[in-house]
Design brief:
This protein is α/β, with parallel strands linked by helices. The protein contains eleven helices and eight strands. The protein has an eight-stranded mixed beta sheet, with helices on both faces. The longest helix has 21 residues, at 145-165. The protein starts with 20 loop residues before the first helix and ends with a helix.
């Protein structure tokens, strides 16, 4: 029997020598911004949300496109609706599928109107109607409120996407906390709607173990690079108040601990940069996905910081590379 490993990775992608000058420059700039900026928990969630919309954090200012349309979907709670937003492909292009997008922000920040430009790029690149979900945020609405909203929207789209947007729900995904919520929502659909099948998931730098994997604990920079253990701990305490790390391992909170072999998983695209405290989450979950017999495409970006794909594509090389891969994946699953 050959001693060649049955499991291999491209180790060169994790070598610091693979980090480009442009990636180094981006990270240096982000750390420069972070050095003099308050952390979200120092000023409070409400104020930091407004700061992020105004471009007063490392992430660019939110741009709300006139082509986007806001609407709402009924929730499980009588009299309450869930705000959503739809970005359609360019006029005249037929919709080939619906993508349910769940934004990131540590379960605390951002909203359905904060990523219009990125989502319009996805809509145009794959001829999709992209639905952004305005789920309830912590700390005002801790677990399970946000996940419940995502489930309600997903169930509504399974039943109504065709009549409302001209195509079936085909994809789901998001960034960071949004990737986490996407997997939890998928698990619900696999149980509640067993005859329904997604064409694919897009899971960008997700958090899949809320008790923290080694990279989340060990990732350290002279100045915070977007996200680190300290910020993650405050996010999770807001989302899961009062729970111990062991309690956070419950599969209803940490999808890493779900028995994936018992599920009929769809294909999934995982992306992450090497300068991200959630790198282990992507690597571990991607491999577990493959071990369960499903397709997992894992794309690693040398030097990419947390959130790299969310930066302007015309300014950040890796943002364009990441979105090109996302659109390529989506188009391939529509064939």
């Amino acid at each position: 029997m050959s001693l060649q490993s049955d499991v291999t990775i491209n180790a060169s992608l994790f070598d610091p020598k693979s980090i480009s000058d442009s990636a180094h420059a981006l990270n240096d700039n982000l750390m420069g911004v972070m050095k003099n900026a308050p952390k979200w928990y120092e000023v409070g969630a409400e104020k930091y949300r407004q700061m992020r919309k105004n471009g007063e954090t490392p992430f660019p200012k939110s741009v709300v496109l006139e082509s986007g349309r806001s609407f709402s979907i009924p929730s499980r709670d009588a009299g309450r609706k869930i705000p959503c937003r739809v970005l359609q492909p360019e006029q005249g292009e037929p919709v080939r599928g619906v993508f349910m997008h769940i934004h990131g922000g540590g379960w605390v920040l951002m909203g359905e109107t904060d990523q219009d430009v990125m989502l319009k790029s996805m809509a145009d690149g794959a001829n999709l109607a992209v639905i952004s979900v305005g789920y309830r945020l912590a700390p005002e609405n801790p677990f399970p409120k946000g996940p419940e909203d995502c489930v309600d929207v997903a169930e509504w789209l399974v039943e109504h996407a065709k009549e409302e947007f001209g195509a079936e729900l085909k994809f789901m995904g998001g960034e960071s906390a949004g990737a986490h919520l996407s997997v939890l929502t998928l698990f619900h659909l696999l149980s509640a709607k067993p005859s329904f099948h997604l064409s694919g998931l897009v899971l960008n730098f997700g958090a899949f173990d809320l008790s923290f994997l080694p990279q989340a604990r060990n990732f350290s920079k002279p100045v915070t690079l977007i996200l680190d253990y300290d910020i993650m701990e405050h996010f999770i305490e807001a989302f899961l108040p009062g729970l111990t790390p062991d309690q956070r391992k419950d599969p209803s909170m940490s999808p890493m601990y779900r028995d994936l072999t018992a599920l009929k998983l769809p294909s999934a695209l995982f992306t992450c940069g090497t300068e991200d405290c959630l790198l282990d989450d992507t690597m571990f979950m991607g491999v577990k996905w493959q071990m369960a017999g499903a397709e997992a495409i894992i794309k690693i970006f040398p030097g990419g910081p947390h959130g790299f794909i969310m930066f302007p594509q015309d300014q950040v090389e890796q943002a364009k590379e990441g979105m090109d891969i996302v659109k390529q994946y989506l188009v391939s699953k529509l064939q």
